Amino acid sequence: MTEEVEGRENGVSPVIAALLILALTVLLTGVFALGMLSLGGQEPAPIAGITISDTNGVITLSHFSGDTLPAGEYKILVNGADRTADFQAGDVDFSPGSRLTWDQGVTHQLSLVSVVFTGGGRSVVIAEKKFYREGKGEANAAFSAVITEGKNATSQVKTGVSGTNPLPSVIADQADIWVVPDQGSDQVTIAFTADEEGSDLTFSWTSGNGQTASGRTADFVYDSAGSYTVRLDVLNTASGESGSDSMKISVRDPGLSAMTWVKRDTLVTGGFAARTTTGGIGLDRNSGGWAFQYNDPRFFGVEFKVVLTDSVTKSFNHVRSREEMVPGIWYHAAGVVRDSGTTAAETLRIYVNGTYPHAIMNEGDPTGMTYFEPVKYSDIYLNPSFTISSYSEVPFPLSGAEIAAIYAAERDDPR
After folding, report:
1. How far apart are CA 273 and CA 323, in angstroms?
2. Do 212 and 206 form a contact (C-beta atoms < 8 A)?
3. By C-alpha distance, which of 302, 298, 299, 396 is closest to 354?
4. What's the pLDDT tens digit per position in 199-235?
5. Within-domain flag for 323
6. Judgement on whether residues 61 and 96 belong to the same structural domain of the protein
7. What is the mean pLDDT of each run of 10 residues along the chain (415 residues)?
8. How far apart are CA 249 and CA 86, in angstroms?
9. Is 168:406 a contact under the CB 8 Å cutoff?
10. How many C-beta atoms surround the C-beta of residue 133 within 10 A?
11. Are strands 289-294 and 212-214 parallel, antiparallel or unpaired?
12. What CA dihedral angle connects 360, 363, 366 and 367, to 10 degrees?
């Protein structure tokens, strides 16, 4: 009797155990499947080979292989702080073969540099490197610059002059100083002066194009267009304190870019939308000028006219686009004149809504052009059949990529 009961009890336990194991297996499978589903809903993080280095205070990130990190989907952290803007990387795709640099200087502590992917609602560290550079006592290395030869274009780019608007930060922030070579010498000369002076201070300058100087002042000459970084290192020989500062210089070829946001308010078939003037409503043939107009029914589209300062011809040159303006819609028109090129197509261009060409026709012939000088202290003439939100003019040609970037930056909110 006892043996029979014990047999039944021993037989029940394995069944219960089996049921418990089965239930636990089902539960774990469900949890695992849920985890897999949640993982499957997320795109994998990019995989990129990135080296990080520090040379004399210049932090360099080099992307040598793997996936591109799209602009806006990654951050560069230095000592835990977001320094993406200092690397000029806010609007840049970080792709294989490219480098990002920031001249932090040698006086600041450097402990950790990280590249973090921020897409898809999450943050993933793509690359990271630890450093052990201690900060030193810092000497003031600030300096100023004066353009002694060449045209200073900084005000047109950054602050606007004569009622014009400055360029958007996507362009303006690329350099601290903008300058155009002198027409006669084809070069730019900039004089730099350190703010501090004293017998215990030593100064070391680099121009960005191979020139160097010592002393409190430095004069650097630039004879080709490009972007250059001028750097000053200061050392106090008595205290051991040091410091560094830098400026970005953009030397641009001479010419003109004129831009405007314009809206056709009525069914007007033609007429000037906006143009510079020094009196009345006409372009000044002596000092140059530009105009945007919407053409008559034979040539529907936006037209860019320009008067060159060639002392012989003072001729009108123009380029047209067949981009028809729909009433009530804002259009971004940009006309560009270069002081180079052998054909009109290379010299005169018009971009509409950030794009070129738009069935370009009737281009002028700027043969013999030597220079374009925008009208000084010009007014803007407005046609009441159009609304002009803004206009800008700078004494150098913007590239197609730059004009497209300006249009993209302002598209949702025309100035």
Report:
1. 15
2. yes
3. 302
4. 999 999 999 999 999 999 999 999 999 999 999 999 9
5. yes
6. yes
7. 37 44 38 33 81 91 94 93 91 92 83 92 91 80 96 90 81 94 92 95 95 96 96 91 92 89 80 63 62 72 75 66 86 84 73 82 54 55 76 88 93 86
8. 16
9. yes
10. 14
11. unpaired
12. 110
236's tokens = 């106090």
Residue 407 identity: Y
Domain boundary among 226, 251, 276: 251
Report the domain count for the chain.
3
pLDDT tens digits, one per residue of 49-106: 999 999 878 999 999 999 999 999 999 999 999 999 999 888 899 999 999 999 887 7
Q: Does residue 311 form part of some domain? A: yes
Identify whether the C-beta of residue 147 lies closer than 8 Å to the C-beta of residue 70. no
